[in-house]
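Q: What would this chain look like folded?
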Amino acid sequence: MTNRQAAVQTHFRLDADARSRIPFEEFSSIGTPLHFAHANGYPPKAYSSLLEHFTGQYQVMAMYQRSFWSGVNPDTLINWEPFAADMSRFMDEQGLSGIPAIGHSLGGTTTLRLALRQPDRFSVVVLLDPVLFPPSFSQLWSRFFHSGLAYRMHPMARTTLRRRRVYPDRQAIFASYRQKSVFARIDDPGLWSYVKAISVERQDNQVELIISPEWEARIYVTAAISDRSIWNDLAGLKPRLLVIRGEHSNTFSAYTVRLMQKKLPKMSFVNLPEAGHLVPLEQPHKVAAIITEFLQKQPVKK
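A: My prediction, written as structure tokens:
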């Protein structure tokens, strides 16, 4: 663990409910504010290897998505619109505007949605393999969801709901996850960061996952439903945009990228070889270098 990683501070209780101030991690407390938005099931500390690259210049902050709050019923989620409202609320609470923002997966889609609706929130937007589907798929998946078929048709939702929640120790989690293909491109230090981020010690000396399978599955099945609003507004995006895709992503398709480029011909795009949807965890140093170069070429207003 580096000195920068050791300095990460959690602000507010992670069991805060919807009426409380939104909890967040602060990876450094000096410099220009920069917000990072995490993926579904991947809390901020899972990205330590990526975010430590920015702590020398930026006050790196990362709010926790509502799936980590208590007192919020996952069944109330019918699309991803509330995540943008949560981010707007968080930025109001922290007095943030006109700052650079990075988001992965769900976090990328949420950041993009807020940037379209409140363009002054961000000066620069960086999307890491965002969850964004073509308009035609959005219509189709909405029908599946409202017909009650989404949980049966989404393979990740079914797997998530069957996931083991309690382990004897973190080494057991690591050993189990090391065998999973989804984590195959993540090195051991990166996987350990993830394991530590998603687990908490219990009074009986076992460890429990802090991720709610019910919430994670609900986020999966409500994806794409409100994507049409993004496509309708995308051409009017004001903040400068960088999009990084994992070459082998099974979530953010090459076809979707081409649709984005038609709407935003001036956007910067990188297709990173030998990476998948978890590109910021699989290649954190390369991703950080690409983002840093982009930010340096287009300095953030102060």
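The two ends are 32 Å apart (CA to CA).
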